[in-house]
Write a structure and sequence with these properties.
With 438 residues, this protein is α+β, with helices and mostly antiparallel strands. 32% of the residues lie in helices and 25% in strands. The chain contains nine helices and 18 strands. A seven-stranded antiparallel beta sheet has the order 4-8-9-1-7-6-5. The protein has a seven-stranded mixed beta sheet with strand order 14-13-10-11-12-17-18. It has a two-stranded antiparallel sheet with strand order 2-3. About 6% of the residues have low confidence. The structure holds zinc ion. The site of zinc ion has 7 residues, from loops.
Length: 438
């Protein structure tokens, strides 16, 4: 079972009774947005940094506009503003503008502006601001303190709704009131937590993934196939962005901050594409279980020193990036019915995956692992991935598995498929260039 969020739209049955209240809350959301936007720009002018939503909340929670909405609804406005600034920063398009003010101008027939008004912004209620009456299809949405001052005013807006037939609104997490300018009506969006049944595993095959530096990922399959992902785009970005950032006049300035954000967005995009590709390959091959090397092996190499991308293309990739990659992998694999387990990477790079001989002085030469016992040379990262797939550190690992070495072919260990990534076509196999003989 997997938890997901679903959004259901609903029309408002008692629209004429609640429209005024919703209007006032929509205008309050616009005012708060504008105040917070103005404040963000001021901070930005002074410090070169855009405040995040927590900083905005600390600054504005005593501001009168904050009381126009339920406190959680006000918080959501600030989160949306911070998100808008973030996506502007990380946008690829230099012509994009920072988030604007929410104002609507009205003109007379000579084109002169007659007045200005706040538009009706979307208002979001989170759990503390919602009482849901599932029996009667009604929600009570808490008003902002400003809008319940009148002694006879209710504390909440009571909305009667109607969803599409067959939709049951359960496990309600958020309610969003959205104004439809064409219909000139409000509608509700319900965000619900749902559990979906994950599909059966694609098969009984297994895979092992080794995350590393010279290759971002190596995958070994029980079907005697292996894939390598050199992470070419990560490396190109690792050369490009630090240079661009170094060229900025002010390292904490807007341009530099924007470059940092853009770099991180591109990395996230790369991770999503890579995970998608690996999971698709697993489904094709009938893989039901993936072992992925735990991060100890990435953060610290055998000498105990932190691995550093600095000398290899200055790639600013740390433990958190691998954490991020693994969490995306866990999610996308689960959706495909595949389990993911993190296993120890200890000794996986200095143990032969065929005969299990451990060689402390093992030298990896030009990406090759050479075993004296087997008299064979494998791709070093594929060897590591295969050891992770076999989970050689598992305590109950019986020696019987090692006797396979005479039956198994080993050619695939030396000749992985190599996938390079480009932005237009995604991952494409590269012509075989790996020299498999030492
Ligand atoms: Zn061997």
């Amino acid at each position: 079972m997997l938890e997901v969020h679903c959004t259901y739209r609903a029309i408002i049955r008692n629209h004429s009774q609640v429209a005024d209240s919703l209007d006032r809350h929509g205008w309050s959301a616009s005012k708060l947005w504008n105040v917070a936007n103005y404040h963000s720009r001021e901070v930005w002018e002074e410090t070169g940094k855009i405040p995040d939503h927590e900083e905005l909340k600390d600054e504005l929670k005593s501001h009168p506009t904050y009381k126009g909405l339920h406190s959680q609804s006000s918080q959501r406005v600030l989160e949306e503003l911070a998100e808008a600034f973030n996506s502007w920063y990380s946008s690829d398009d230099d012509r994009d503008n920072p988030p604007g003010y929410r104002k609507e101008n009205y003109y007379d027939d000579q084109g002169r502006r007659v007045h200005e008004e706040h538009p009706r912004s979307t208002v979001t209620w989170k759990q503390n601001g919602i009482r849901h009456d599932t029996k009667n299809n009604r929600v009570r949405l808490s008003k902002g303190a400003d809008h319940k001052e009148h002694p006879k005013a209710w504390e909440y807006i009571l909305v009667e709704y109607e969803t599409r037939p067959g939709v049951t609104v359960e496990n309600l997490q958020q309610v969003r009131a959205v104004y439809d300018n064409l219909k000139e009506r409000w509608e509700l969006h319900f965000i619900c937590k749902d559990k979906i049944k994950t599909p059966d595993a694609p098969g009984n095959e297994t895979a092992g993934i080794d995350l590393g530096i010279s290759n971002f990922a190596a995958v070994a399959y029980s079907t005697e196939e292996a894939d390598l992902y050199p992470g070419n785009r990560l490396k190109q970005d690792g050369y490009y962005f630090p240079k661009e950032i170094a060229n900025c006049d002010d390292s904490g300035g807007n341009t530099a901050t924007r470059l940092h954000h853009k770099w991180s967005e591109r990395r996230t995009h790369f991770f999503h594409s890579l995970v998608k590709h690996i999971v698709e390959r697993c489904v094709e091959k009938g893989v039901g279980h993936i072992n992925v090397g735990d991060l100890e092996g990435v953060r610290d190499d055998e000498t105990g020193e932190a691995k550093n991308w600095g000398t290899h293309g200055n790639l600013d990739l740390h433990g958190w990036a691998f954490d991020r990659f693994i969490s995306i992998l866990e999610y996308k694999a689960t959706v495909a019915g595949i389990t993911v387990v993190e296993v120890s990477e200890r000794d996986t790079s200095k143990t032969c995956c065929v005969c299990e001989k451990k060689d402390e002085s093992q030298r990896v030469d030009r990406g090759l692992y050479v075993c004296e016992d087997c008299d064979a040379a494998f791709n070093a990262d594929v060897n590591g991935a295969e050891n992770i797939r076999l989970n050689i550190n598992k305590e109950s690992n019986s020696k019987s598995s090692t006797n396979l070495c005479e039956d198994r072919s080993t050619g695939w260990l030396a000749q992985p498929e190599v996938y390079l990534h480009d932005l237009s076509s995604g991952f494409q196999p590269q012509e075989q260039v790996v020299d498999c003989k030492p």
